[in-house]
Amino acid sequence: MSSQSERDARVREHMEMAEQYLARAFEHLEKKDPYDAAEKIWAAVRHATIALAEKYLGTASPPEGWTWRRFVKEAFTKAGLSEREAEELAAYFIEVRSKLHGDCFYGLFYEESEHKPLMDRAKQYIELVNRLLEKAPQLS
């Protein structure tokens, strides 16, 4: 078991990485490179999600037998969001993984009307995670 201060340090590191990847993603978009932008968005969303899960669930990955969708939903629910909001955010996480990480980056398939809205929404997602982390109770 890690100490609370170690967990908090990991949470901060993941959020710093999320913000760095997000900034790099939009630099790639400015350079007309949606493929690398898509992968950076995925990395940003993934790091922010891991930070949230570490803080509220005490772990960075789903327990055995849990899907990532269930895990992400549980993290957002524990952070105080409604079940509906948590489900929507878990669906966004899965969609980013599938469409940006999979289809766009690995599949080299980019459609602006499909992929750009997911990229744009990442900023809101990361801002929301930051707000939820700021309001998290400190555990002893």
Number of domains: 1
Reading off the top of the CATH hierarchy, the class is best stated as: Mainly Alpha
Unreliable stretches = none
User: What is the alpha-carbon Rg in Å?
Assistant: 15 Å
Order of helices and strands: HHHHH
The outline comes out as globular
Distance between the termini: 13 Å
Number of helices: 5
Q: Give the proportion of residues in helices.
A: over 70%
Q: Which architecture does the CATH hierarchy give at level 2? A: Up-down Bundle
Structural class given helices, strands, pairing?
Answer: mainly alpha
Q: For the residues shown, what is the average pLDDT?
A: 90
Number of strands: 0
CATH topology: Four Helix Bundle (Hemerythrin (Met), subunit A)
Question: How much beta, percentage-wise?
Answer: under 5%
Largest sheet properties: none
